[in-house]
## 1
Amino acid sequence: MNASASRWEAVIGLEVHAQLSTRTKIFCACPTQFGSRANSQTCPVCLGLPGVLPVLNRQVVDCALRLGLACGSRIAPASVFARKNYFYPDLPKNYQISQYDKPLCEGGQVEMMVDGHPRTARLVRIHLEEDAGKSMHDQTGGTTSLVDLNRCGVPLAEIVGEPDLRHPEEAGAYLTALRQLVRYLGICDGNMEEGSLRCDANVSVRPTGASTFGTRVEIKNMNSIRGVVAALEHEIRRQGKLLDEGGTVNQETRTWDPDRGVTVFMRSKEHAHDYRYFPDPDLVPLHVDEAWLARVRTQLPELPMARLQRFTAQYALPVYDAVLLTESRELADYYEDLARTLGDAKQASNWMMAEVLRLLNERGESIGRFSVRPPAVAALLHLVKDGAISGKIAKEVFDEMVATGAPAEAIVARRGLRQISDEPSLTAAVDKILDAHPGQVKAYLGGKEGLAGFFVGQLMQATAGQANPKLANQLVRAALERRRSPA
Ligand code: ADP
Ligand code: MG
Ligand code: ZN
């Protein structure tokens, strides 16, 4: 660590936009589907034509309430939509409908894991707003800009975090936890590359141990969690160096350049917009009563951190394993299915950690699309339990199950992989091997006991690896001992 890094401490607060996965937009019935032909999903409402009225989509509120309740936020009985006024070609109304001084959710927290330890970071608020369109500059190689308004009116939840984070890795853990949470809740696909989850990072530095905050810089344009961490690392170094050299940090917005690995000046505070917020006269206040909240509450799934803790307690899993196995709802469901069917949580987690996760990684596949389902895996592991196949053979069989979709039993039968546990035939094979290697037998009996392994190896070769390994060992030693004293 250099001197500058220890003199300055970072303070980080994230603003995250989550695109809510409703079928239609927030104030009109246009579809929200990603990647459709430009401007094919628009109507007079989301195009901002005169004489139209927005109608709030109830599903959007349901999504935000799920998130608010999951984070322990206070839900406002009445919240207000406001117009945020600014001019930009991708915003045909010249204002964005958002929430300002009366947001839907206030307070609450995000629970996360940092280096295997649980931590929380507080939230300022969660509010609803509509997305703007997308400008595409210089797509044709010239100076033209194109605009796609399909995204206008797509529902967003903006999640504003308190400046509770102190390290870039903590910011990464916060985003990881938030992405996991919205996926568990089924309210957002969490895809940062497609922009379904977007993050602006605010960061300042202060002398280590100070109690006040320094001047913050806002960084935009990171499209992965790793990008956020890298941008923060760079920006913290930049601010520390600036202060070390006797300079000051200006409140400004910077953009992350992933190719060069630096943040670049975008605009200063003086050029910040004056949004002239006022309540949208076209929308009545949003009233959420107890009955609505109760309905949403009963539909909440078990949340990621609760599930992680239950996994460590109920299945005696190490935290590391529990973190991996609860990464997504589908993976956790898969594991619990397997543990139940198999009746052995430990064997199930070993197999998940070593084999299932390995194959998912190799194939770049998600568990939801993984063709071999828990009952088929349980059938395979039962063969190991019953001594029909060894653990080593089971891995081979599993690879083939994944490749061909055939059940374990069929593969074992077709390839003749069943373990040989038949004592008389194995003993006969051992005797034959000992007869063929009189020199080694003599050496063994003379004290070179390590040669037992050689004979076991020979037996394995003779049986194409199918001799029950434990039994093979026993039988080899017994046969050798029988030759010790000539009867
Ligand atoms: P704005 O409305 O201009 O975006 P806010 O006060 O709402 O400003 O703050 C936005 C974000 O900035 C929040 O996530 C908050 O945690 C973070 N933040 C505020 N002050 C600081 C600071 N001094 N250093 C780092 N982050 C900060
Ligand atoms: Mg901001
Ligand atoms: Zn529309």
## 2
Amino acid sequence: MMVSRLVIKVGTSTLTDGTARLSRRRMLELAQQIVKLHEERVEVVLVTSGAIAAGRERFGKMHRPISKSVPVKQMLAAVGQTHLMLAWEQVFDMFDVMVGQVLLTRADLSDRRRYLNARDTLSTILAHQTIPVINENDAVGTDEIRVGDNDNLSALVANVLRADMLIILTDQDGLFTADPRAHPEATLVSEVPALDDSIWALAGASRSGLGTGGMTTKLQAVDLATRSGITVVIANGTKPGVISDAAHGISVGTRFLPVVTNMEGRKRWILAERTSGSVIVDNGAAQAVLDGKSLLPVGVRNVIDDFDRGEIIAVCDITGRDIAHGITRYGSSDARRIAGRKSSEIESILGFEYAAMLIHTDDMVVLHPATAL
Ligand code: GLU
């Protein structure tokens, strides 16, 4: 099995090789592996830690003592992020692959409109054969808006992008039956079909090196991702060929199987939400939606109630029957202005265009697929 969209999270301990500075050599090795997949047409998103560590490295050089307060850490992240990004850009440049930096907070991934914006930006970066390089926006993050660790951030990103796999690279080989540092007889768990209490117990309080997360935040990420239909591999970032092995389904580290399919996860999510409004569509558009196509504004007859971009709305046929639910790309007032009009007219009517469709087929669940009109 080959993946088509992959999120790779690299932890600080891997990037620094356990030292107090970024390891360019390690970054080059990882970039080389990522570029190989990129050449195989796999879409790869990189979530990178290491900003704070890079900031420390910079300050360390100047031998300036620094405190450990939160604003100081944020300052270190601000200094280190550009340094980290420059290093990634340099290593990817060697392969003529472009990277684009995206700094996110929890709010960008939970607020509906911002969620769509983040997703559209990331998908567009990928569509331009460029690798999004993501980190948390540590310099501005407060507790309320922070994800807090890149393990969970990477799972949120994988979910937003509906990746089929998340690879978490760390300084350990995976999940062990006991802490291998205290119990040399511990063995690696190669596959976990479902996260249960016994697996959570294995995570214990293990912490690794310089990063924020121990095994616990990794399992939280696994939980979130596998419930959205994403396979997760936790493996050692220093193992040669680790990314390629994981992506090609070769046994490496610990593989956590998704508990639902990608499709089921998305359907559940869309169907669990209350609709904020609806659109009445003509017969042609209704048939297109039932056939699994996107809903274009041209087929929309009427827009009912007020809703925002990113909210879930119902698609109704002319008899008023709900035929689908989906995430709308346009709020109700914009939707009213483009209803019945061609997609090519959207920009001249609104002055901007988010997308050619009102609801993308990927964001829609058809309620009565078997019923013909
Ligand atoms: N965002 C932090 C950094 O780049 C790391 C968070 C984590 O390691 O989980 O320094």
